[in-house]
Each structure stands twice: as C-alpha cells, then as structure tokens.
TrEMBL record:
One Gene Ontology MF term: CDP-diacylglycerol-glycerol-3-phosphate 3-phosphatidyltransferase activity
Family, per entry: Belongs to the CDP-alcohol phosphatidyltransferase class-I family.
Superkingdom, natural source: Bacteria
Enzyme superclass (EC): transferase
Organism per entry: Alkalihalobacillus alcalophilus ATCC 27647 = CGMCC 1.3604
PROSITE patterns: CDP_ALCOHOL_P_TRANSF
Cellular component aspect of the GO annotation: plasma membrane
A Gene Ontology BP annotation from the UniProt entry: phosphatidylglycerol biosynthetic process
Protein's name in the database: CDP-diacylglycerol--glycerol-3-phosphate 3-phosphatidyltransferase
InterPro entries in alphabetical order: CDP-alcohol_PTase-I, CDP-OH_P_trans, CDP-OH_PTrfase_TM_dom, CDP_ALCOHOL_P_TRANSF_CS, Phosphatidylglycerol_P_synth
Length: 192
C-alpha cells in the first residue's frame, strides 16, 4: 500500500475516534469561546474531523506529486470521504444540530453514487471524483465543521455561517448527484 492510500486509510481510522468525542458522554466539561459554550468533547471531535478532512487534500497531493495514482486509491478516497461525512452527519442529527432531512439527502446521494461506482468497478471501470463532486465535498466539510463548532466564531456576531454553508452543501449535493448520474448513465444502461 503506497503513502497516499495509507493516508486515506488513516482518515477512515479516525472516524470512530472523532465519533467517541462527539457522541460519548465524556466528563470533559465545557468551554466558552466567542460567547458560545461548547462541550470540550465536541470541540475535540470537530478538530479531529477537520484534521481527517484535511488528509483528503494531502493524499491527493502526494498521489499526484509522487505519481502514485492507483485504481485502488481512486475508489478508496471517495469512499473514505463518504464514510467520514456520513458519520459526522449522523452524529449532528443525534446531537440535534442538523435536520435529519438534510442528512438523508446528503447520505442518499453518497450511497447512490457509491452504488454506481461499484457497478462500474465490477465492469473494470473506475470513476474518479468530478470537480463538481470535489466542490460539494469541500462545502460539506465546511458546513459540517461549522455545525460541529457551534458556529464559532460567527456566533459572536449572530451570523448563521453554519446554516448558509450546510445549505450550499445540500444544493451542491443535489446538483452534483444529478450531474454524476447524467454523465454516467451509460454504466446504468449496460446493466438494464
């Protein structure tokens, strides 16, 4: 397994760690930042999520720089992103920080796209993430991070940055999903 793929796997390993800090009732207390009180466990979870998300850029950078792009990496990298995003969304719904319907839209799109990728892989094709799909992922990460951070520092000025970002992420999720299925309809047509 090459370095970029190891980084991708490490992102997947961080998922249960940040979920423990996010959802377990740990006796870590709270901290006030910019006029907002946030549980320390949630702050740690947010930092771990942001760090794990940053490894997505890092593995792609090394894969291109060191010419280590592999079919395994093209498949595993988007899967790791989806697992990370899905775990965070479910946690946010559990904490009542995100409406369930938004999580359902985002997760449904991710499962549907993964399904098409699996069908393509069975035929020997690998579908890499599109620029629109990557943009969607960036906004999902920003929106989820802002929600996990209780909208800090924007909470100090009552600016709903977290809500704006998650709405943009949801819209991009829908648009990129439609774009993905239109561009890859030939894969589904082969199955029918």
């Amino acid at each position: 397994m090459n370095l970029p793929n190891k980084i991708t796997v490490s992102r997947m390993i961080l998922i249960p760690v940040f979920m423990v800090f996010m959802l377990a009732d740990l006796p870590l207390g709270t901290i006030e930042m910019f006029g907002t009180v946030i549980p320390v466990g949630h702050l740690i979870a947010a930092c771990l999520f942001i760090f794990a998300s940053a490894t997505d850029w890092l593995d792609g950078y090394y894969a291109r720089k060191l010419n280590l792009v592999t079919n395994f990496g093209k498949f595993l990298d988007p899967l790791a992103d989806k697992l990370l995003i899905t775990a965070a969304l479910i946690g946010l719904v559990q904490l009542d920080l995100l409406a369930a319907w938004i999580a359902i839209i985002i997760i449904s799109r991710e499962f549907a796209v993964t399904g098409v990728r699996l069908i393509a892989a069975a035929d020997g094709d690998v579908i890499a993430a599109s620029p629109l799909g990557k943009l969607k992922t960036v906004f999902q990460i920003i929106g989820i991070s802002a929600l996990m951070l209780y909208n800090i520092p924007f909470s100090a000025i009552s600016f709903p940055f977290d809500q704006i970002m998650i709405w943009i992420a949801t819209i991009l999720t829908i648009v990129s999903g439609i774009d993905y299925f239109v561009k890859n309809k030939h894969i589904l047509a082969k199955q029918g």
